[in-house]
Specification:
- The structure holds two protein chains of two kinds.
- Chain A is mostly helical.
- Chain A is 75% helix and 2% strand.
- Chain A contains 13 helices and four strands.
- In chain A, helix 3 packs across helix 12 and helix 5 packs antiparallel against helix 10.
- By secondary structure, chain B is an alpha/beta fold.
- In chain B, 32% of the residues lie in helices and 26% in strands.
- Chain B has a six-stranded mixed β-sheet with strand order 6-7-8-3-9-10, sandwiched between helices. In chain B, strands 2-1-4-5 form a four-stranded antiparallel β-sheet, with helices on one face. A two-stranded antiparallel sheet of chain B has the order 11-12.
- In chain B, a hairpin with a 2-residue loop joins strand 9 and strand 10.
- Chain B is globular, with a radius of gyration of 19 Å.
- Classes of the chains: A mainly alpha, B alpha/beta.
């Protein structure tokens, strides 16, 4: 409980800092005023003035911070669930083919140069989402044997299909020179150029994730005892695994569609949290979500500033920031309870 | 047939084939409510497989297993958990839950999705831990327990579940003699006082003989014989079961037949 409150407080502080900081170097009090105007406007007061400052703070930075929180939370939750499902410390949200499928969808969209817009989304996120889901469904179907899913089979099938899909993506990228840097940038993950519609798009997934955290925390704990023991205390193991797989794939697919393949968050954040708060998912899930959100918000600051006005893919930052911390924790505590 | 509703566990021509091997062959078995059964036999005789078939974890290749009249394979796990609890042979603790957490998981089938443990549930968990001498371990992490302590915790988890039947696969393997006897007495008490049906797979013939009222002898996937210890734990039957002469004498203190270990040089 204490950990959750600390993380929440940190998150709010860092969120505010992230909004205040930026390459265009706006003065602090002006930014705070813009924020206040925006809050007042959203609470039904008079609309905020549309000065460049307000646009930067309210239409560019603020949604970006919110998006970072949601993406980070979704990835961390998805990673926690995958790790419990597969009981494998190397499991991450993308393990059943989500990242491969999303990349393929995005690169295909770039190649085809489609000029689609559905609910404010262009072709790239739409096709990335479709690609991610299609790949997951394919992996799931191929991994079935007599109506049952063995986690080892699912894992290997996911890796195999993921590799195959990555190869096709690479092929597409090589075929068009001008695609390459855009594709790479997208794949490495970024929050740049995303606005409020992306935030709104992730909200249903986030509510789904909250529901999952509430209903599935105890079944997740029971699953950790092993399939046979879980079955004997009354858990419907096959059905629970199917639900968990579907929900966490959906979360990962949504996050990737919106922000590209941001690595590390879904893999390491759950581990770090488990080392700190233990394996009980009733605590682990909310803490992971908050920690994931925090990591993304923090990582986005150097992503925007380090090479300003150019942007660094955020996936690079999350790995650079997160790895040393994880190694430190690992060194101190070992793999106990991993 | 009379008393058909008393037959809690039934194997109806149960046949299990694994990797081309007939592990259990056409087993017909009835276990009445309230019985305390010991299943003995050499390694590979199919004891563990029988238990896994009874608990529903292993699907039959042919035949059926019935629990309170219903096919165990068609039962919803939640319903099945009220009828049958299982203590497996090898327990590993990979995740750092506390003993209390692990024993509480036994209440899973009694809990509704959003609510936590109610007073009844807590009472069941506490009782289970008292019965298995685990109360002082409540806040310890299961990853730090000895093999024997962990096994008692796993038994406590099955007890917290409060099923009608308890299936145990070599539950006392890692335990010191004092705990072996404690568990034996606990199971007897549960059977006598709460009417819990117990099926206890054991390597240890003497434990089975001492505590169980009916012994089932499995050999190579078939029931060799079954009956009360007095009739079945005999030199004759044990020699058939294990293929070597095994002397049996009545336990001086309880009267139950006990295997006597004789070293080199003494005659059987």
């Amino acid at each position: 409980m204490a950990t959750m409150l600390v993380l929440l407080a940190l998150l709010i502080v860092c969120g505010v800092v992230a909004v205040m900081v930026g390459p265009s170097g706006q003065p602090l009090p002006a930014v705070m005023q813009a924020l206040a105007d925006g809050v007042r406007a959203s609470l039904g007061g008079q609309p905020a003035p549309s000065t460049p400052l307000h646009t930067i703070v309210l239409e560019i930075r603020l949604p970006r911070v919110f998006l970072g929180c949601l993406v980070g939370a979704c990835l961390a939750l998805s990673g926690s669930v995958m790790q419990a499902l597969f009981q494998n410390p190397m499991a991450d949200p993308y393990i059943v083919g989500v990242s491969g499928g999303a990349s393929l969808g995005a690169v295909a969209a770039m190649m085809l140069g489609l000029d689609v817009a559905v609910a404010g989304f262009t072709a790239i996120p739409l096709m990335a989402f479709a690609g991610a889901l299609a790949t997951t469904v394919l992996v799931y179907i191929l991994a079935q044997r007599g109506g049952r899913i063995q986690t080892a089979t699912l894992l290997l099938t996911g890796i195999a299909i993921g590799s195959m899909v990555s190869a096709v993506t690479a092929l597409l990228m090589l075929s068009r020179d001008e695609l390459q840097s855009a594709a790479i940038f997208w794949i490495l993950g970024s929050l740049s150029g995303r606005g409020w519609q992306h935030v709104y798009a992730l909200i249903p997934q986030f509510i789904l994730a909250l529901g999952m955290a509430m209903f599935m925390a105890r079944p997740l704990n029971v699953l950790l005892m092993g399939d046979e023991a879980a079955g004997s205390v009354g858990l419907d193991v096959q059905r629970t695994k199917r639900w968990l797989l579907a929900l966490s794939s959906l979360l990962a697919a949504a996050a990737v569609a919106v922000s590209g393949v941001i690595g590390f968050v879904g893999l390491i954040v759950p581990h770090v949290c488990r080392l700190i708060v233990g394996p009980d998912h009733r605590v682990l899930l909310p803490v992971s979500a908050l920690a994931g959100a925090l990591l993304m918000v923090l990582a986005d600051i150097p992503a925007r500033l380090a090479l300003a006005p150019a942007e660094l893919p955020i996936g690079i930052i999350t790995s650079l920031l997160g790895c040393p911390f994880f190694l430190y924790l690992l060194h101190r505590q070992g793999t106990r309870g991993l | 047939m009379a008393h058909q509703d008393d037959r809690l566990l039934v194997c109806d021509r149960l046949h299990i084939r694994y990797d081309g091997d007939d592990v259990l062959r056409d087993i017909d078995l009835s276990i009445m409510a309230g019985e305390m059964i010991g299943v003995i036999g050499p390694n590979g005789s199919g004891k563990s497989t029988l238990l896994r078939a009874l608990s529903g974890v292993l699907a039959p290749s042919a035949g059926r297993v019935l629990l309170a009249g219903g096919d165990v394979q068609r039962m919803r796990p939640r319903h099945r958990a009220h009828l049958v609890g299982v203590v497996h042979q090898h327990s590993t603790a990979t995740f750092a839950f506390t003993v209390w957490d692990v024993v509480s998981m036994g209440r899973h089938a009694h809990l509704s999705p959003l609510k936590g443990l109610g007073p009844d549930d807590r009472q069941a968990v506490e009782w289970a831990m008292q019965q298995t001498d685990c109360v002082q371990l409540a806040d310890r992490l299961v990853t730090e327990l000895s093999g024997g302590e962990l096994q008692r915790v796993i038994i406590a988890r099955a007890l917290a579940q409060q099923p009608q039947t308890l299936l145990l696969d070599e539950p006392t393997n890692h335990l010191d003699i004092n705990h072996q006897l404690e568990i034996g007495r606990l199971l007897s008490a549960l059977n006598r006082e709460r009417g819990m049906t117990i099926v206890w797979v054991s390597h240890d013939v003497n434990l089975a003989s001492e505590f169980c009222e009916r012994i089932i002898m499995l050999r190579r996937g078939e029931i060799l014989t079954q009956g009360p210890p007095g009739e079945v734990i005999t030199q004759d039957w044990l020699s058939k079961l294990y293929g070597v002469p095994i002397p049996v004498l009545p336990n001086m203190l309880s009267g139950r037949p006990q295997v006597v270990l004789v070293g080199k040089g003494a005659r059987a």
